[in-house]
Write a structure and sequence with these properties.
With 216 residues, the chain is an alpha/beta fold. It is built from 7 helices and 7 strands; from the N terminus they run ββααβαβαβααβαβ. It has a 7-stranded mixed β-sheet with strand order 1-2-3-4-5-6-7, with helices on one face. Strand 3, helix 3 and strand 4 form a beta-alpha-beta unit. The radius of gyration is 17 Å and the shape is globular. It starts with 11 loop residues before the first strand and ends with a strand.
């Protein structure tokens, strides 16, 4: 069965049969799509594009979710369902209120559907983001850990607003302590030792790790 989406381009898109929701174009560091290297491009037919200044409403996002599930075959028992992922050109944690309100609505309307957040993790645990995610029903977070070495991380990611490598690590640790399944990713950026990043991620509480190809 084909998948139909009625959302604005960038607000909802499909990659490898899974639904992604974009919340913002804003970011507080290098955008994750740019962290894959200057030659990286998402598939054109995925419709993952910048969404502009108009942040989607909870209603708009839930309508996109309903439309996706109405037109997408997830199997009789949902065995083909990959859940919903918040990701996009910006970082979803910068629209935390909308993210959490949408997650609560998804969980209330579609029992058993998993919700994942793809982020740079540059949100201080002191700001309450990990707890807000956990309490809203987010089950999994995927955090980009560009390097295990602070100065190398900050050279690659160029975090702003006083954020640092340590903020990313605290986010990973806090999410793990709250029972969320944490995956960390590292791009094979020239000079980066992915094995060191994996060891650090696991030490902070991540349960899985992936390396991503770098596109020069």
């Amino acid at each position: 069965m084909s998948t139909t989406l009625v959302a604005r381009p960038g607000v909802a898109y499909v990659l490898r049969g899974a639904l992604y929701l974009g919340l913002t174009d804003r970011t507080n560091a290098l955008a994750l799509v740019d962290a894959r290297g200057p030659g990286f491009r998402l598939p054109a037919d995925a419709r993952c594009v910048p969404i502009g200044d108009d942040v989607p409403t909870v209603h708009e996002l839930i309508t996109a979710v309903d439309t996706f599930y109405a037109s997408h075959d997830v199997g009789g028992a949902g065995e083909l369902d990959q859940g919903v992922t918040f990701a996009g050109y910006g970082d979803p944690l910068l629209e935390l209120e909308t993210l959490c309100a949408t997650t609560r609505e998804i969980c209330a309307r579609r029992h058993g559907v998993g919700v994942r957040v793809n982020t740079n993790g540059l949100a201080s645990a002191d700001a309450g983001a990990p707890r807000a995610l956990a309490e809203s029903g987010v089950r999994r977070v995927s955090v980009h850990l560009a390097s295990a070495i602070p100065h190398e991380y900050e050279r690659i990611m160029r975090p702003r607003d006083g954020l640092t490598h340590g903020d990313c690590l605290r986010f990973i640790e806090e999410c793990a302590s709250l029972g969320m399944e944490v995956e960390c990713t590292t791009t094979k950026t020239p000079g980066v030792d992915a094995r060191e990043a994996e060891a650090l991620a696991m030490a902070m509480g991540a349960v899985s790790f992936r390396t991503r190809e770098y596109f020069p």
